[in-house]
Amino acid sequence: MKIRSVLLSLVAVLIILPLGLFGCKEKEVKLTYGETPVKAQRYKQTTVGKVTTTVGGKTADAEIRSEIVFLETVSEVKPEGTLEKRIVYESGWIKTGKTRSELPIKGKVVALQMDEKGQLLDVKGITELFTGQRSTLDLRRLLEENQLIFPSKPLKLGESWSYNKRFDLSNIGELRLKGRAKMASLEKRDRTRIAKIVSSLEGSMFGEKKFQDVTFVLKGEEKGEATTYFGVEDKTVVEHKSHIKGSFEVAPTGAPTPQAQPLKTQFDLSTTITASRQGT
């Protein structure tokens, strides 16, 4: 039975799924991704939190911390607004309890194609990124879940918009998210306009999968909130902070057996993504 791999993949979605302020006078602004004055931007992503797992009547708590450093460049912007991004992973590690493991991602490259609103159109290089891990991580889902999508019209201060997303989960079910975002303020940092966007989301997990001769059912829910600082002229994320918590259960439809036990997981994770310095 591959129930442990299912758990690892689900948790991975949650870890991996980014000063002198002066107010601006503009009442509205259009936010788009695109060609940026910054040739390359280096980011550091840090996740900290706790995961509690219960199986077979035994409960285990795990403190989790991870760090990933990557370099992001916009390689091409087409006339219609479609752009191509290149992400080069420079380093990464994850610490569970007292055990720290290096992630085999150094030098791996992911190419993204997206529209100016942030909707991903194509992702390449996914299958090679985490080769050798005990479970396969769906990086496209991670990227989509963390991608901030803007509306096509200019936004007024305080204006909100909604979005829905759906993701497959480890071939056992799906995750459906309902989110709402608001442009909370427009500020200046070193003469650059920065839009502060606050968002919240609610999600539900559900599904059914047969492993060998046993059918398992997935049920779960999650809630989260985030604050993103986006450079209007740079057309890129300056900083992103998010907090997500929830729980899910994978349980057999019939009576539990030694080989088929209900597995319950609770998680509480916070992620920060910051632009550490400009690349060259």
Brief descriptors of the model:
single chain, 280 residues, mainly beta, Lipovitellin-phosvitin complex, beta-sheet shell regions, two-stranded antiparallel sheet, 3 helices
The largest sheet is:
13 strands, antiparallel
Structure annotation, total helices: 3
Query: Which blocks of ≥5 consecutive residues have pLDDT under 50?
Result: 15-24, 131-137
Beginning-to-end CA distance, first to last residue: 47 Å
By CATH, the architecture is named: Roll
Number of strands: 15
The percent of residues in helical segments reads under 10%
Rg (C-alpha, Å): 20 Å
Alpha-beta classification = mainly beta
* CATH fold type: Lipovitellin-phosvitin complex, beta-sheet shell regions
Structure description:
The longest helix is centred in the first third of the chain and has 13 residues. This protein has one domain: Lipovitellin-phosvitin complex, beta-sheet shell regions. A hairpin with a 2-residue loop joins β11 and β12. The strands form 2 sheets. Strands 1, 3, 4, 5, 6, 7, 8, 10, 11, 12, 13, 14 and 15 form a 13-stranded antiparallel β-sheet that branches. The chain is 9% helix and 61% strand. The protein has 3 helices and 15 strands. About 6% of the residues have low confidence. It is mainly beta and 280 residues long. The relative contact order is 0.21. The termini are far apart.
